[in-house]
Amino acid sequence: MADAALRLTTLAEELLGSELPVRIRAWDGSESGPSDAPLLVVRSRRALRRLLWKPGELGLARAWVAGELDVEGDLYELLDRLAGLLWERGAETKSRVHPVRDPRLRAAARGLIAIAGPWPPPPPPPEEVRRRSGPLHTKRRDKEAISHHYDVGNDFYALVLGPSMVYSCAYFDDSAEGLTLEEAQHAKLELISRKLALREGTRLLDVGCGWGSMAMHAAREYGARVTGVTLSAEQAAYARKRIADEGLTDRVEIRVQDYRDVRDGPYDAISSIGMAEHVGSVQYREYADDLFALLKPGGRLLNHQIARRPEPNEEAYHVDEFIDAYVFPDGELAPLGRTVGTLEEAGFEVRDVESIREHYALTLRQWVANLEANWPQAVRATSRGRARVWQLYMAASALSFEHNKIGVNQVLAVRPGEGGASGMPLRARTWNPTPR
């Protein structure tokens, strides 16, 4: 009799110490669990071997990317239920029993081993990053990390991001009709342009320029002269073609260059949109110092960055295993207060902070919808495993923003001029654009 699903459910509940909030379908066709719950499909016993070898997030991620785990029904609901069970149990719950000493848990673990199949576990999926050893955030290692994330294929990103090719949080409104993703991305670029007070002839440095959308907007709509830098050769090639097609080559230059190597300041303004997450805590002060040095007195910096919540013990913070292995190698999130403090230590005056957390949840849900609507083309453009990485990453991130686990903020800072002058108007919040 096919009973793998019941055995899995029973053993999982023994190990977790609570009822499993999802339904399971196993490789033998059996099902177990609440009939009204989202369905977790365990397509192969290989998934169990991965979990036994790497319990928790990394084992689950490997099985998902390899296609050994799948979902039928609402992916968001399933992730929400599993997140509450596996990742938010709290230190007190986790310390109640010790899996090595507790006979019940040892028996459950032996039960899983018995049905997991032949040892050893399968190798990690090819989409998992193969990192070199050595110190974090050297220029070479950062370039490799950026390449892993962004050199996935411009065709793939075009399917996910849509025509705007903007890979950062859009800016929606509260109107009854709402904005399309393209309108909301245009509104975000317009918001940043106004915060930076761009105008004809403004010299703008766009750090981590992506596929050139901010650079093109600043040049086309405001007459700015823009230098964009990225470590991704694929992004740079795509951006240069877009710029040429729009006839903006006399106003926009795109370089494959580390921000630490930019030496042609001073600039009137700097935009850093979704780039600082790659910098890392050990480099962040250097990042702030470098951008400060590249601005003229009175120049403005717009730093658009994801933030995490502060930890009670900051030394206990560790990078999310799935994100680190499959999405943003070596990426780190910092609390907003630390970011603001480091910018101030570098000499900046922080003039405005705007949280747009809910906007990122809306953006991510639209990106997931784009990916799922174009699934066959997305798989052909990269790989099935890579498409599954992005589906899981974006859906889980949307929930994290919705539940206030992480946020995203635009920090507007100024390099003070002579005598401490900011050059800012007395009432600065006049920049919010009319999106349509």
How are the SSEs ordered, and which strands pair?
Blueprint: H1 4-16, E1 23-25, E2 31-32, E3 39-42, H2 46-53, H3 57-65, E4 69-72, H4 75-87, H5 90-94, H6 103-116, H7 139-150, H8 154-161, H9 181-195, E5 203-207, H10 213-222, E6 225-230, H11 233-245, E7 252-256, E8 267-273, H12 284-294, E9 295-308, H13 321-327, H14 336-345, E10 349-355, H15 357-373, H16 375-381, H17 384-402, E11 406-414
Parallel strand pairs: 1-3, 5-6, 5-8, 6-7, 8-9
Antiparallel strand pairs: 1-2, 3-4, 9-11, 10-11
Helix pairs in contact: 1-6, 2-3, 2-6, 8-16, 9-10, 12-14, 15-17, 16-17
Overview of this protein structure:
The protein is an alpha/beta fold and 436 residues long. It is built from 17 helices and 11 strands. It has helices spanning 4-16, 46-53, 57-65, 75-87, 90-94, 103-116, 139-150, 154-161, 181-195, 213-222, 233-245, 284-294, 321-327, 336-345, 357-373, 375-381, 384-402; strands at 23-25, 31-32, 39-42, 69-72, 203-207, 225-230, 252-256, 267-273, 295-308, 349-355, 406-414. The strands form 2 sheets. Strands 7-6-5-8-9-11-10 form a 7-stranded mixed beta sheet. Strands 2-1-3-4 form a 4-stranded mixed beta sheet. The radius of gyration is 24 Å and the shape is elongated. Mean pLDDT is 90; it is low at 89-100.
Keywords:
436 residues, 17 helices, seven-stranded mixed β-sheet, 44% helix, alpha/beta, four-stranded mixed β-sheet, single chain
What's the helix count?
17
Describe the largest sheet.
7 strands, mixed
Low-confidence stretches: 89-100
Helix fraction, binned, reads 40-55%
The Rg value, from CA coordinates, equals 24 Å
Q: Name the beta content range.
A: 15-25%
What is the N-to-C succession of helices and strands?
Answer: HEEEHHEHHHHHHEHEHEEHEHHEHHHE
Overall geometry comes to elongated
Helix and strand composition category: alpha/beta
Strand order of the largest sheet: 7-6-5-8-9-11-10
* Extended strand count: 11
Global mean pLDDT: 90
